[in-house]
Prior knowledge:
The structure is a single chain. It is built from twelve helices and seven strands. By secondary structure, the protein is mostly helical. The strands form three sheets. It has a three-stranded antiparallel beta sheet with strand order 5-6-7, with no helix packed on it. Helix 2 packs parallel to helix 4 and helix 10 runs parallel beside helix 12. The protein is globular, with a radius of gyration of 19 Å.
Amino acid sequence: MSTPTQAATPGLDLEATLATAQEQVKNLITTHAGKVPVFTDNGKWHFDDDAWAPGWTSGFLTGLIWIFAERTGDPWWREQAEKYSLLVEPRKHDDGTHDVGFLMTPSWGRWHALAPSEKTTEVLVTAGRTLAKSYNPAGKYLKTWVDDGSSFIDIMMNVGIIFQAGALSGDEALTRIAAEHSLTSRRYLVRGDSSTIHEGWFDPATGEFLRAETHQGYRADSCWVRGLTWAIYGFGTAYEWTGDERFLDTARRCADYYIEHTGERIIPPNDFDDPHPELQYEASAASIASSGLLQLAELLRTRGRATDAEPYEAYARRTLARLSTPDFLGRIEDGWEGIIKQATYHRGNNLGVNESVMWGDYYFVEALHKLSKINETTR
């Protein structure tokens, strides 16, 4: 018999929601074949180059296609997944971005998980080595595209590609780099109250931590919520690869902070400390949180800590149910091309504000996919 946590979540029709998401993605890749957006503009996908960061979203679209290829077994979806993965492949050499993991883990990582081969192994190892080149041994951190002294909490979502490259190649130096960056992020980018700093600045010559900054939050000492959700998921991934309890502890503390501060509203704002937020919701953070919380619950459950896992899974289910309502779920028939509405990319630069964003769509569908597998095991 299912426990209350495992039971079907009221208000969430999992299969119907996945079908809607699948329709949205099919419309995107058939109407705009080979193109990769970052965000929508009035609900329509926007295809100009990212005005703020080096392109970093093609892995998310490819990952969505892989999820539907896996779920349906349809050769058409598999053909599209491989086609879009090949479009992403050249980025395995891109040493001008810290987002190599975002590019490769949802795309080639999913391909490798379904059908490992010499080719998928080579791509993942090469990508991990490329990202590892941005490592600063003095400060033991991976730098961003912004500056040699800059590191983002976002990078915690990218270190998985280095961990995987180390495991696939047997190169312990890669594993050490990923672990050391994770420890540095834990030390300097996670505050004592378990909120997170968006950007840490270091002296690149000495490694000394200098100050906190933010690009997308309310201010440097506030908690930009998407960054916090990157931390929940990223430290969970670091624990998954290393078994280091410090990373599990950090993931849990960040998750507890997120749940406490989001509370009954279920969908958080852009920044927890903004006293007068322009918009009530930043739904992409909720999408990331739902997938990260399900990952955390599974990590605890598989280690015999089912009681500890329950609150995280329960909150993820509530989040997915809320995101699946008409307030947040986009539909073609309503003139909306994305999957999750009321998300924001970059408020300060007025990019993708109160729209759909590619990562919000991806992590929402990934979480639904995870939940469907959990439901299958508890029947």
